[in-house]
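Sanity check

After download, print the first record. It should look like this:
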Amino acid sequence: MEDREIFSQVRGVNILIALNKETILMHKDEIVDGGGIICDIADAIDRKDVREKIKIYPIPFNGIIKEINAQAIMKNNVALGASIALVDYDLK
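Expected structure tokens:
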């Protein structure tokens, strides 16, 4: 039996998927050094507004949705695809 409480929750954010600029501004300080922000190219914030050790991945969410003639609600699926590509997830 452990004589102290065990915590397993990690507080830092490795990848922030931001579907709007407000999300970026609200959570940018929670991202760990070396982490990244996946966001719509239209919502990308100025490089000077985030720490140098945070990567910004501007993806044309709305452009992709328009190109495939999908509804705007599908933006989260485009973001999910970008995050899967970013971590080089093996789909097999």
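If your output differs, re-run the checksum step. Summary of this record's structure: The chain is about 30% helix and 25% strand.
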